[in-house]
Amino acid sequence: RLKEQILDSVFHGVITLEKDSVVNFANKQALRLIQTFGKAVLIGKAVRETPIHEFVNVAHLNRALTDGHASIDQEKNLIIAEEEKVFGYSVYPLMYVDQVGGAIISIRDITKEKRLQSALLHRDKMQSLGQLVAGIAHEIRNPLTSIKTFLDLIPTKMDNKTFREKLFQHVPQEMDRLNKLISDLLEYARPRKAFKEEF
After folding, report:
1. I want to staple 28 with a disulfide (CB 3.0 to 4.6 A). Which of 8, 86, 95, 157 is the partner?
2. Which residues neighbour 199 within 8 Å (Cβ) at sequence distance 6 or greater?
């Protein structure tokens, strides 16, 4: 009874299975997560006959029950009451001495965590994009300023041989610089095909 009270108090849903994948225990949190009212719906039944199989990949259960391999930090997306939910789960083999005697499933709702993660990732992307745009604007403004300066001086300095030489030298250089910057941006934005090489 004490063990059951402890398991009913933990944050994760906990479900245990016999070697033949028959459910022999589910705590209150597990019942709440899989929206099953009453242990009678689960206990004594094979996993495939219960809602559990929708929340956990059956291949992970089979690996734990037959090979004794754990599957940790897995995820499953489900639509529950017309809302997309994400569930995180782990499946561990339950060992009796040296043999697999069953499996333990630990399950929890990680929807809020995933949404928060996604929001933070989006914020980081926007921040990085802002820094990138500021850097690009600076890089574009420099050659444009140089070209504009030369163009503004043409009416008054065109007769000056030194000015003409500098104009024909620097303006094409600045235009090449702009062109290279735009080419680099396009190269960065365009998805590349993977180049596979055997070595």
Report:
1. 8
2. none
What is the token pair recorded at 109?
């709702």
Measured in degrees and rounded to the nearest 5, phi and psi for residue 76 equal -140, 130
Burial environment of residue 197 by CB neighbours within 10 A (0 to 12, 13 to 18, 19 or more): exposed
Q: At what angle do helices 111-157 and 161-189 cross, to 10 degrees?
A: 160
DSSP 35-51: T--SGGGTTTSBGGGST
| Residues sharing a CB contact under 8 Å with residue 68, sequence separation 6 or more, in sequence order | 93, 95, 100
79 in helix, strand or coil?
strand
Query: Tokens at residue 62, please?
Result: 């089979």
User: Within 13 Å of residue 123, how many CA atoms lie on the same side as its CB?
Assistant: 6
- Pick from 3, 58, 10, 49: nearest CA to 33: 10
The position carrying tokens 């990732």 is 121
Give pLDDT, residue 92.
94
What tens digit of pLDDT does each residue of 39-98 get? 777 888 998 888 888 899 989 999 999 989 999 999 998 888 788 899 999 999 998 888
Q: Which residues pair with 25 in a beta bridge?
A: 16
